[in-house]
Amino acid sequence: xxxxxxxxxxLKMKINFTNEQNLFRDEVRTWLESNVPETSxxxxxxxxxxxxxxxxxxxxxxxxxxxxxxxxxxxxRGLDLIQWLIFEEEYYRAEAPxxxxxxxxxxxxxxxxxxxxxEQKSKFLNAMATGDHIWAQGWSxxxxxxxxxxxxxxxxxxxxxxKINGQKTWSSRAAYADxxxxxxxxxLHSERHRGLSFILVPLDLPGITVRPIPQLxxxxxxxEIYFDDVKVPVENLLGGDGxxxxxxxxxxxxxxxxxxxxxxxxxxxxxKLLELYLAKQDHCSPMIQAKVVEAWAxxxxxxxxxxxxxxxxxxxxxxxxxxxxxxIFWSELDHMMHQTALKxxxxxxxxxxESKYDAAKxxxxxMFSYAGPIYAGTNEIQKNIIAERLLGLPR
Amino acid sequence: MNFIFSEEQIQFKDAIKxxxxxxxxxxxxxxxxxxxxxxxxxxxxxxxxxxxxxxNLPQDKxxxxxxxxxxxxMVEEMGYAGLPEPVAEQTFLINDAIPFLPKNITEAIESNxxxxxxxxxxxxxxxxxxxxxxxxxxxxxxDNSECKFIAKDDMDxxxxxxxxxxxxxxxxxxxxxxxCTSENFDEINSAVSARGALMTAALLIGxxxxxxxxxxxxxxxxxxxxxxxxxxxxxxxxLADVAVKIEFAKPAxxxxxxxxxxxxxxxxxxxxxxxxxxxQAAELxxxxxxxxxxxxxxxxxxDLHIYMRKAWSMMACxxxxxxxxxxxxxxxSSTSEELGVLYTF
Lengths: 395, 345
What we know:
Structural class of chain A: alpha+beta
Distance between the termini of chain B: 9 Å
Structural class of chain B: alpha+beta
Order of helices and strands of chain A: HHHHHEEEEEEEEHHHHHHH
Number of domains of chain A: 3
Number of helices of chain A: 12
Distance between the termini of chain A: 40 Å
CATH superfamily of the domain at 186-336 in chain B: Butyryl-CoA Dehydrogenase, subunit A, domain 3
Radius of gyration of chain A: 22 Å
CATH topology of the domain at 186-336 in chain B: Butyryl-CoA Dehydrogenase, subunit A, domain 3
Radius of gyration of chain B: 20 Å
Strand content of chain B: 5-15%
CATH architecture of the domain at 186-336 in chain B: Up-down Bundle
CATH superfamily of the largest domain in chain A: Butyryl-CoA Dehydrogenase, subunit A, domain 3
Strand content of chain A: 5-15%
Shape of chain B: globular
Number of strands of chain A: 8
Largest interface: A-B, 66 and 66 residues
Number of strands of chain B: 8
Largest sheet of chain A: 4 strands, mixed
Oligomer: heterodimer
CATH topology of the largest domain in chain A: Butyryl-CoA Dehydrogenase, subunit A, domain 3
Largest sheet of chain B: 4 strands, mixed
Strand order of the largest sheet of chain B: 1-2-3-6
């Protein structure tokens, strides 16, 4: 038994921002205040809205705010995770437009930096930053959803190009995007996660047909992509032939899991929910108040957890199942908050054009909140991961 | 911004963990139940020896002056072990209150307290029935307007049953003599209430973790249909849901503890947040752990209920989820408090 009677001044924890971090926050805020469009853009899932959002990416890039976490050598600001969280807090506070190139900036960009050739980096990274290339994801297929290793779309090497045949589906942003990235089976005799390759495909090649899929809100946020003898130059292979699974797993890795949904987004929703409740409190039952408190408490916890995890990473710590735990938490929270907002709105909760109390926005957000538990790996798949990797249960 | 523990903090946590793994086993807890004597004097003396009991007393009072974050980490382990002695929810609260109490009370406490670490009990409207009065030197009693110290011989009390046999509860029938103070009462009372919420929150984290650990072991061991039941998704998902709740309750505890150490004016809100999240996590841990154990979970024989019973009591004491919800709402809806994206830290 060792006595605890020794050092007592051991608090290393410092849960507040440094001067430098506060100055950085001011800088972000000042820029956003003078650059965020005064009227909100059209939906990015409409053709016109998509182009407006592309323009916004260009504006962001002119201020060097489009790729803040990228290293300086690739034109980014090289921000650490804490600075990125600050940037996101200001971004949501300013109600700046949704990032139409999220697939590029947060998923493909870092993957290219890790696995791309010099030529690939110079061809794609800058075009991504300027908004000239907007990227769609090309993972799922009709027979490969949660079971991604069941991919059947083939890419056969023929001289200096791959010939692609098959179909991708649920490709986010594909309705209007310029490029897609995804996994293709390059070894026709392979099974499961072996024999897959990571290939970058321009969506305007002959043989490609994009069929937009209207989502619950009626707009085409995703699409089917059909490949009929599509010839893609061999230079568009990212990493080695047959290494696609490994690279895709890196794309889905923690840091990007963390960046998929920053806490500011949910804290902003929780604050607006409270505002809505306070305005309509007299028409609500105590059950609603309980949900409003829960929304604040959970979004606050999500923020604390992400700062805790980011601090651990900056300290050289390794990360386990945090992205799976987080994905379940924020997607369920987002749905609960929107459900509660609709209850507060009462009979106005069906008025999809109503601007009073932001009814239309809540309704749109409510519908989108049903997607959260499904995309980026369904919550059921995440629970399997937690049970197997964190709790040690058998597969 | 550095939301992280130091190596020393982890060492404290590990030290108490390995101590309790030896000295506070399920069978030692059951021995206490059997003998109607859950307060184990040997274990108590060892906790004094180890420096645990005085850890958050100021250094000039013979303690370590330990910060609340380290304290919370240690308390998690006390929850994990199901420690029957109320170190977190009575002793640590009294230690924290001592610098704020007037001299007449602290002198009375010290004269009864520091001679070999006598146990002193605590009663408060949020946890009205003190524990182990027979083993105590006296009682600190908060009522609605005063804080009192009552020596053991100056009161008449009787034992009452708790649903947790580890908790020997008492009811005070009459008080013959007390040292009273109403000085700074509101300030002291709200400080004790907030810390009570935090201490029970930290205990609940440990208890929830223990329940999910016991369940994970059980579902690996128990086979049906020719496989461990832990390979079935229905079982996996139930336990994963608990893991999610625990994961997002923990940082609320650490932040609340940090706020107290820093005298943050929002520490009462932060403590309420911690208890709110931990009570929800523990509640689901109880429900899903017993379900994962099947009928075995409903038996006296399985150890699960040692921790489940303590969790039920800790959820109820020092402000349950409903009370914390009121505190949070009242703070958020008062115009002086800002909230949202920019006010977390």
